[in-house]
Design brief:
Blueprint lengths: L1 H6 L4 H36 L2 H8 L1
């Protein structure tokens, strides 16, 4: 993949744009996932405090 990217003959500005687009999309996806995980964790903690104890002890 990296070798192909170096051989790619498009202008560098175009390559950078594509790279930025990919980076931002993956970053936003990661942030969304983190938010979802936090929300789920908070919900679990509110409903059942034993879940945290089991996760800590294991």
């Amino acid at each position: 993949m990296i070798a192909w990217a170096t051989q790619f003959t498009a202008s560098e500005s175009e390559e950078e744009k594509v790279a930025m687009k990919i980076e931002t999309s993956t970053w936003s996806r990661m942030l969304k996932m983190r938010k979802l995980m936090r929300r789920l964790f908070v919900k679990q903690r509110r409903t059942d405090p034993t879940i945290i104890w089991t996760s800590i002890n294991t």
